[in-house]
Write a structure and sequence with these properties.
- By secondary structure, the protein is mostly beta strands.
- The protein is 0% helix and 55% strand.
- The strands form seven sheets. The protein has a six-stranded antiparallel beta sheet with strand order 22-33-24-29-30-31, with no helix packed on it. The protein has a six-stranded antiparallel beta sheet with strand order 23-32-25-26-27-28, with no helix packed on it. Strands 13, 14, 15, 16 and 17 form a five-stranded antiparallel beta sheet that branches.
- A hairpin with a 2-residue loop joins β1 and β2.
- It is globular, with a radius of gyration of 22 Å.
- The structure holds beta-D-fructofuranose.
- Beta-D-fructofuranose (FRU) binds next to β1, β5, β9 and β13.
- The site of beta-D-fructofuranose has 12 residues, from β1, β5, β9 and β13.
- Pfam families: Glyco_hydro_32C, Glyco_hydro_32N.
């Protein structure tokens, strides 16, 4: 069964069929980006978890491959990561042609037990062999999962590091290995900051501060569910240092403020590619929320919009005296940009009668003395289909409101999500639309809000001055070339 065409994204990764959740095993290998993902090879519900597989040379056009790692009597195949075993440290490949090595969570039932297992591929990721000595790391616990492995090469030496979670304890557990098979405990991090849900899908990586390549810091991503900023699933991040043994988060100038990767409802379990240069650190997340994903079924029973976020390049920038993660969509080619400039808006004004199904809207608005502005995306068939972005100048807040459209999705689906922005008179936004999704990048990509939308067609874009006149300096729409 193929997802219905009204919601199947043009630009974002979507599986050919069936259930999908977290991205797994993101790795760049021999010129191709490999994306594995949590899938159910047999249906549209969260069951029989296995790793689906696709690959791409540009992160936009994906070739679908057969299911890579299947569940079996030892358990389901939960989330994890893939590394290129350079130097053949595991002995599972050769020095000239190292194996791809996957570390994933083997989730056994009766009794519940989650441990880390290994599979390897010597044909560039197409077929996988489970290691005979699995599991390779077992703490005897039931919620130990989502191993992300990377090569550490620093003052403490050169070895593999795994970060996984004890989900219920809200702890990131760090281990080291010389061969990807034998693992030794290094340290634990947490619980810290956002702890109102279980911790899942960690990632730990170095990142340079923009404009100062010598200033390299470490970023720890922790997804949590529930307890996310917009309700349900969300992701916090910590900036700090990793000395090869321990990760220590910087003290936040504002106390215990939580840094959120995304302020929307639908950005979860995001992790980054292995084997890319530090300056190319790229994240993909699952565009959904455990609060309602089970209800995202279309009338014909297929799962509506199982999809990933746009791939986002990460960097660190200084804002208000502290560092922030910046995300910028990568690789999308645009065409047919239509630009309007210098338009005063008092009431509401339709600026584009038609905007593309998939593409980018860039906006620069001077709020002047008004209370704020609103951007309305209207759809054919009237008001139920309105998605509204509102900027409140006093509160320095941007909100995205979405509705159910003309199909009832879930009680928790309609609503508004809020994100703080730097404020000032001049507001710049970059908005990506792809049929049934929206991703809003503000403050140069240091504030991001990602939401699924109800399926819609035929959009127009209107701008409205709220509490006075505003001035559109520039507004542009461009089609994405899929
Ligand atoms: C996150 C998660 C992971 C787990 C996987 C199971 O969405 O719950 O912690 O490995 O999904 O599908």
């Amino acid at each position: 069964m193929t997802a219905p065409s009204a919601t199947r994204p043009l630009l974002h990764f979507a599986p050919e069929q069936n259930w999908m959740n977290d991205p797994n095993g993101l790795v760049f290998h021999k010129g191709r980006y490999h994306l594995f993902y949590q899938c159910n090879p047999e249906g549209v519900v969260h069951a029989n978890l296995s790793w689906g597989h696709a690959s791409s040379t540009d992160l936009i056009d994906w070739e679908h491959h057969p299911v890579a790692i299947r569940d079996d009597e030892a358990g389901q195949i939960f989330s994890g990561s893939v590394v290129v075993d350079v130097g053949n440290t595991s002995g599972l490949g050769t020095t000239d042609d190292p194996a791809l090595v996957a570390l994933y969570t083997q989730a056994a039932q009766n009794p519940n037990r989650q441990s880390q297992a290994l599979a390897y591929s010597i044909d560039d990721g197409l077929t996988w062999t489970k290691y005979a000595g699995n599991p390779v790391l077992d703490r005897g616990t039931s919620d130990f999962r989502d191993p992300k492995v990377f090569r550490y090469d620093g003052p403490a030496g050169a070895y593999w590091v795994m970060v996984a979670v004890e989900a219920v304890d809200r702890q990131a557990m760090l281990y080291r290995s010389d061969d990807l098979i034998n693992w030794t405990f290094l340290s634990a991090f947490g619980p810290q900051r956002a702890v109102d849900g279980v911790w899942e899908c960690p990632d730990l990586f170095p990142l340079a501060v923009e404009g100062d390549p010598g200033d390299v810091r470490w970023v720890l991503l922790i997804s949590l569910n529930p307890g996310g900023i917009a309700g349900g699933s969300g992701t916090q991040y910590f900036i700090g240092d990793f000395d090869g043994v321990t990760f220590a988060a910087d003290d936040d100038a504002t106390g215990d403020a939580i840094d959120w990767l995304d302020f929307g409802r639908d950005c979860y379990a995001g992790v980054t590619f292995d084997a890319l240069a530090q300056a190319d650190r790229t994240l993909i997340a699952w565009m959904s929320n455990w609060d309602y994903v089970g209800s995202l079924h279309a009338a014909d029973g297929t799962l509506r919009h199982p999809m990933m976020t746009l791939p986002r390049r990460l960097s660190l920038v200084s804002r208000d005296g502290s560092l922030r993660l910046r995300q910028q969509p990568v690789s999308v080619q645009l065409a047919d940009e239509r630009v309007l400039e210098d338009i005063p808006v008092a009431g509401s004004r339709v600026v584009f009668e038609e905007i593309p199904d998939a593409g980018r809207i860039s906006v620069r608005i001077d709020v002047l003395g008004a209370a704020g502005f609103a951007l309305r995306l209207r759809f054919d068939g009237a008001d139920e289909g309105v998605v509204m972005l509102t900027y409140d100048a006093d509160a320095r807040q941007l909100s995205v409101g979405r509705t159910d459209g003309n199909v009832a999705i879930h009680d928790d689906f309609p609503g508004s999500q809020m994100m703080p922005v730097a404020g000032g008179n001049l507001i710049d936004l970059e908005i990506w639309l792809d049929r049934a999704s929206i991703e809003v990048f503000a403050d140069g990509g240091t504030r991001v809000l990602t939401d699924l939308l109800a399926p819609q067609h035929g959009r127009a874009l209107a701008v409205e001055g709220v509490g006075g006149q505003v001035h559109i300096e520039r507004i542009a729409v461009a089609d994405a070339v899929g």
